[in-house]
Amino acid sequence: MDPVTIVLFAVVILFLTYVYNNRKQNYKNFPPGPKPLPIIGNLHMFDMSKPINTFLELSKKYGPVYSVQLGMKKMVILSGYDTIKDALVNHAEEFSDRPDAPIITKLIKDYGIIFANGENWKVMRRFTISTLRDYGMGKKSIENKIIEEASCLSQTIKSYGGKPFDNLSIINTAVANIIVSILLNRRFEYDDPTILKLMYLINGNIKLMGKPIVMLYNTFPGVMDWVPGVHQTVFENIRTLHDFIRATFKKQKEELDVTDQRNLIDAFLAKQLEGKPESTLYYHNENLTVLMADLFAAGMETTSTTLRWGLLLMMKYPEIQKKVQNEIESVVGSAQPQVEHRKQMPYTDAVVHEIQRFGDIAPGSAPHATSQDVTFRGYIIPKGTTVMPFLTSALKDAAYFEKPDEFYPEHFLTSEGHFKKNEAFIPFSLGKRSCAGENLANMELFLFFTTLLQNFTFQGTPGAQLDLKPAMGATNAPQHYDMCAIPCR
Predict the structure, then answer these.
(1) Contact of 268 with 261, CB cutoff 8 Å
(2) pLDDT (tens digit, 0 to 9) for every residue of the chain, 489 residues total?
(3) I need a labelling partner for 286 at 20 to 30 A (CA). Which of 52, 199, 244, 395 fits?
(4) pTM for the structure as a whole
C-alpha cells in the first residue's frame, strides 16, 4: 500500500470515528430501541406490508417511549394514550414541528398546512380555520349541505335496486362534495370525470404511500431518485393534482371580486391583494396550491374511509345495525336526521365513535419533529428528531378500552345506556397539530351514517366473507367489498 493510500485511509477512519462519536454524543440518554445494523438501521426488522405491527411489538419490549433507526435516521415512537397526551399537550411547543420526509418535501416543500413548519404553518392554519368557519364549518349552512348530499347519496344507492355494488366511488364523491363546496362553491355529480380523476390521484397515492419502496425512498432519497418504481408514480400524481389546482385558481383569479368572495380560494386570492408584507411572504400561489391539495385530500379520504368502515361493520354485525335503526326510528322517525338529534341517540353516537376507534384510519398520524432539544420522561430528544405519536396504541389502549381489539360500542356507553366520552379516543390526534377539520368530519359522519341507516339495511353479497383486516396503504382502509342495500321503506 503506497503512502498516499495509507494517509487517505487514515483520514477516512478518523472522519468516520469523529462522525460516530459526534452522533453518539448527540444521542446521549436517547430513548432505548433495537440495535441498528450499518446503513439500513432497523429496516430488516420491519413487517414491510404492515409496519404498524412491528411498532406494536417493539413497544411491548422497549416501553412507551422508544426509538428505531431507519437507514441512518433515528425516530422516536410514542406509545399509549398517557404518553401521547403528555408529549402533544403538556409539551405541545417542543413537539409541534414536522420532519423532513423526502418523498413529501420533494414537491410540497414547506408549503400548505399539513407538512409546513414555523410561521408559514401558523399563518396557514389560522387562515384555514378562520375561513372554514366563515364558509360554514360548524354552522347550519354546512349542515344543510351535508343533509342534501346524504339525500343524493341515498338516491344513488337506491338506484342499484338491492343488487351488489362497490360503494367506494360514490361515497368518496359524496364526502368530497362537502369540502369542494367550501373550496370551490360547487358540487360534482358522482360520475363526473373531473372528480373521478382527482379521487383516483388521491386514493392512488394513499395506497402507494404504504408501499415498502416509499419507506426506502424516505431512507435513501438520493439513491432512490434514480430508481424506477411506484414512488415515481407518487410524484407524477402530485404534479397532476397541483396542475389541476393551479388551473382552477387561475380561472377564479380572473373573475375575482374581493367584495363578493365565494369560497376559500377567493378568500386566499383576496389576501394576495391586500398589499401587506404577509401577502407576499405567505399568500403566494405555491402555498395556495399545496393548501388546496391538503384540504381536498384530508377532507375526502379519512371521512369517506371511516364511513366505508361503518357500513362494513354494520354488515358484519347486523344486530348492532338493527339497534341503530331502531333508535333512528324512535328519535327521528321519517324526518331527516340532523345534528341536534345526536344528543338523543346515545347508542348511535357510541357506534359512530366505535367505528372511528376500531377503523383506526391514521395509525401513525402525521409524524412530528422536535422544535428544540427536549427532555421527555427522562430521555433527551435532540432538536429535529422525527417523533411518531402512535395513535393505534391510544385507540387500542387496554387501560382505557375494555375490549381494544374488538368492535364494541359499549366502550362509549354507561351501564344505563347513556353516552360517555373516553379521553383516549383521539382519532384526530391532539395538541397544536390536531386535525383542523375535526368538527366538520364529526358532523359528516353522523349525518351520512344516520341517513343511510334510516333508508337501508346493508348486507354482504351471498356467501361473501367480510374481512375486517385493513388493506395495505398509508391509511387503514377496509379491503375491497361489495354490498347490498335493501330499502327500509
Answers:
(1) no
(2) 443 343 334 334 434 433 444 444 457 899 999 999 998 999 899 887 778 889 989 999 999 999 999 888 999 999 999 999 999 999 999 999 999 888 888 888 889 999 999 999 999 999 999 998 887 766 678 899 999 999 999 999 999 999 999 999 999 999 999 999 888 888 999 999 999 999 999 888 888 887 878 878 888 887 888 888 888 998 999 999 999 999 988 888 888 998 988 889 999 999 999 989 999 999 999 999 999 999 988 888 889 999 999 999 999 999 999 999 999 999 999 999 999 999 999 999 999 999 999 999 988 778 999 999 999 999 999 999 999 999 999 999 999 999 999 999 999 999 999 999 999 999 999 999 998 889 899 999 999 999 999 999 999 998 888 999 998 777 899 999 999 999 987
(3) 199
(4) 0.90
The full length of the chain comes to: 489
CB-based burial, 196-215: b 16+ in 10 Å, e otherwise:
eebbebbbbbbbbbbbbbbb
